[in-house]
Amino acid sequence: MVTKTKGTRVGDLASKRSQAARAEHAARRRIVGAAVAVVGVTTAAVLVFTLAPGATEEPRQQVRVTATPTRAADTTDAADPALTVRGTIPKRLGEIAGFGSAAHPDQNTFAINGVVVDPPCELGRSRPVSAHTILLSVTAHTGANARRAGMLGRILTPGFFEAIGPDGRRYPAWPGECTETANALPDDFGPNSDYAGTIELRLPVRSGVLILDGVMTNAAGWEWRF
Predict the structure, then answer these.
(1) Which CATH number do you get for residue 150?
(2) How far, in Å, are 62, 117, 177, 204 from residue 124 at the CA level?
(3) How far does Cα 198 stand from its chain's mean position?
(4) Which of 10, 44, 101, 102 is found 20 to 30 A from 131 (Cα to Cα)?
(5) How far is residue 214 from each of residues 5, 14, 133, 152, measured CA to CA in Å?
(6) Model's pTM, two decimal places?
(7) For residues 217 and 223, what is the distance between their CA atoms, to the nearest angstrom?
(8) The domain containing residue 40 runs over which residues?
(9) What is the pLDDT of residues 1-17, one digit of tens each?
(10) How far apart, in whole angstroms, are the C-alpha atoms of residue 170 and residue 215?
């Protein structure tokens, strides 16, 4: 069990569900991708970690995952046995992930320590009847390089997650509006700091493979079963 600490309140990314919000969601990925290029996240420079250990819906069953989830999709037969067929690095819950550089060996690391599916919504908050809440419990540590620390904070946001459902289809994650934002992981990471908090995702599926886009040239990010 990971103890959560309150992060600073993030911007209300889920206040609009209009076409403008969809455009902003897509633009966010392009903006941060450009920021990653600026700080020199290239195949030669980056060391990617593979370290091992609308309306309120009717009440639904809450599922808490803190161990290795059930197999949901194929991760074998990749050209590199350390990667999945999607080019991602497979991770277990609680396993460290992260990145650094040869020039700056201080590493920026994080771990998804637990997943709660469809927790009860806080008073005054809700989720659409057709959606599921995937609440991630996350810890992170940043090194001395401020730009790389900031990059990790921007990556650990809903816009960089997607899921592969039991049907094999990919679904982009959206920010949710079910849980208290005061518990959310901040997205303005500073150097030499430790963080703990939650990331709330809104998805149309409640199980499968969760993918975090690392926007890197030598790996497509990381993935976890949930």
Answers:
(1) 2.60.40.1240
(2) 19, 19, 10, 22
(3) 10
(4) 10
(5) 25, 22, 22, 9
(6) 0.71
(7) 16
(8) 19-50+61-225
(9) 333 333 333 333 333 33
(10) 17
Helix ranges, the chain (H) = 19-38, 146-155
3-state secondary structure of 64: strand
Tens digits of residue pLDDT in 27-59? 545 544 544 444 444 333 445 554 433 333 334
CA distance 154 to 36: 10
Give the whole-angstrom CA distance, residue 184 versus residue 180: 7
Q: How far apart are CA 142 and CA 36, in angstroms?
A: 16
Residue type for 42, please?
T
Domain assignment present for 83: yes
pLDDT digits (tens, 9 = 90+) for 102-121: 776 678 999 999 999 999 99
Residue 198: its pLDDT value, please? 97
Q: Indicate the average pLDDT of the chain.
A: 75
Amino acid at 194: D
Question: Does residue 216 fall inside a structural domain?
Answer: yes
